[in-house]
Amino acid sequence: MRRICLYFQVHQPFRLRVYxxxxxxxxxxxxxxxxxxxxxxxxxxxxxxxxxxxxxxLVEKWGPERFSVSFAISGVALEQxxxxxxxxxxxxxxxxxxxxxxxxxxTYAHSLACLKSRRxxxxxxxxxxxxxxxxxxxxPRTFRNTELVFYDEVAQWVSQLxxxxxxxxxxxxxxxxxxxNFLYESAAASIRLLxxxxxxxxxxxxxxxxxxxxxxxxxxxxxxRWIQDLPADQPLVNLFMDxxxxxxxxxxxxxxxxxxxxxxxxxxxxxxxxxxxxxxVLQALEPQAALxxxxxxxxxxxxxxxTAWLGNELQTDAFESLYALEEAVSGIQDPAIQxxxxxxxxxxxxxxxxxxxxxxxxxxxxxxxxxxxxxxYVTYMNVLSDFTQRVKEAxxxxxxxxx
Length: 403
Fold this sequence. Notes:
The protein is of the alpha/beta class.
């Protein structure tokens, strides 16, 4: 029996408004609330609500023993659901209540804190766990780092936080001749690894409506056959993708919802597969091998590295300038400063500054409020200048002068 593990990432950042040099020191209003609300409501209408309803139907038809899925919903996305679209949060809660959903932990702000600060990384993981406990009464044992960023040291941190499994990218540079269709474990820590089958995942997430793709149109029958034709000794297929794939990246008019429902039904009717969560995978399978990942990998772009967020001088300058404030911020109790400290760490801000315009260029336009990477950088640095002033005024003097 082949196990298919479906994982969906649900995340939306607090996007910045146009914040100019002359706003510094005058206004601490950084976010485009109207745009953030409108965008979340649009995505909810086109993606979250119809896809949640579809999953609910499938659970009712097949039961959680045969059809289960997993989600990581960032803390900043959950906040926006609470404020802008409570019906969406209620929809996720109802889906979780079926027993067919495993919630996966991540950093609260969907940040890249793991690249700069273990202390901040662990703080955000704990904040996210608290949020999931409060809203869902969930206690995740699986962890998914922002954008599947994974390397040996972060595996050690995650293991020491008590997690049993971690999701990662099944990159060719990591696996070599091996297949992603097995359970693995970290060579650096006591933690199991579920690796994304990026080819099959991206067939849905990126290529589904691409009429120039030789395999277009992708039908339920074709996709089911590809999975059925995998070698019989490969027991696991991990399909990880953004939840906005359904209805937003791939519009309803493309047939994405009908495709997904027909494909799930076809796989289950065949009796050759079941849809499982990471927790169920760990209960059923043993690791095939131990993998070492000394340098960070991600699921972004064709390079599967960090260049989507830290690939140019704009991004590096913004990133370093932000985390230079960590020590000072840690000593401040002001809720508004702590709120903005979290929101400004969200990886999307650095993603919008990306200057890669080759095979992956269009991907960087998803939900991007800026006309260019330079506009994104200038806006962010203006906001950061004002935030820095606030931190200096609020921080204990000994922290800001310790250098």
